[in-house]
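To fix ideas, we reproduce below a protein record of this kind.
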Amino acid sequence: MHQAPDILMMAYKQPIMQGQLSLIDEKERHIPGSVHYSIKRYDRHPQWNMDDLGMLVYHYKKEDPSSNYVELRFCVAGNVYCRKNNVECNACRASETPGCSEKVETVDVLSFRFLAVHLSQFGKPRKAEATSLSQDILDFHHPSSFSKILSLCGRTRLVLEALLNHSYTGSPENIFINAQSQMLLLYSLECMVGEKEVEGFQCKFLANEADREKIVRAREVLLQHIGEPLTIKELSRKVAINECYLKKGFKEMFGTTIFDFYQGQRMEHARYLLYEKGLSVTEVSIMLGYSSISHFSTAFKKHTGLEPCELLLH
């Protein structure tokens, strides 16, 4: 059986003894059929010399497909936080408050586990010709388990920073972490198969930083309107970019269409509301703006492979 190495021990380059770690904050969530994640923040020992590190773990068991998963692990050291409110402290980082008693330097350890039932939504019909390693992993066709150390590219660091420093709570936090974890999966797969970080864009208008910011803003607006479906026209007006640029730019920057991204996030939020909040199918379909329960149930089953009522039985 494949045993993945401990990401924290690898970043520290030696075993960590009991009592060396002081847990400051922890978030953890397990929802059937969805990404399982944990984010742990530790007080960093002053003498620790640690590297930022990423790891992809592929767990495959032919005789037990239900146990298959892909896990992303990250260790990020050196962030400076205020113990008072547990958010990043720019003043402390800049040494503007050298005597601050609330200043704490941390080690952040993040884990995102994607089960086979969750990854099946990204699958495509397999053709006779050879498929990519990324597709083999998402489809669990790679024949053996393995772990792969990942370098943290600029895009991955931005997502990790957003995950560690966001201000969302409750349902919006669940939506946000779900969306960001999918971006981490995309970037990690690209890194693993040796694809270089793209510096240029096929859409020439994306060379303009202001236009890229509008596309990123469009993604944020979609997440803020999970229960209020927007048309492409409405979304383009909100971020002040024409519809054609919006659709092309979104697909290039995030690797998916606006509709597929939005629908996926709605269904993941529905899964959260049904399983963790215990809401009824009727309540969730209304909250997500569906005109009928049957339309919602059809969309949910297409995305998750389960009827909404089946999730309630777990």
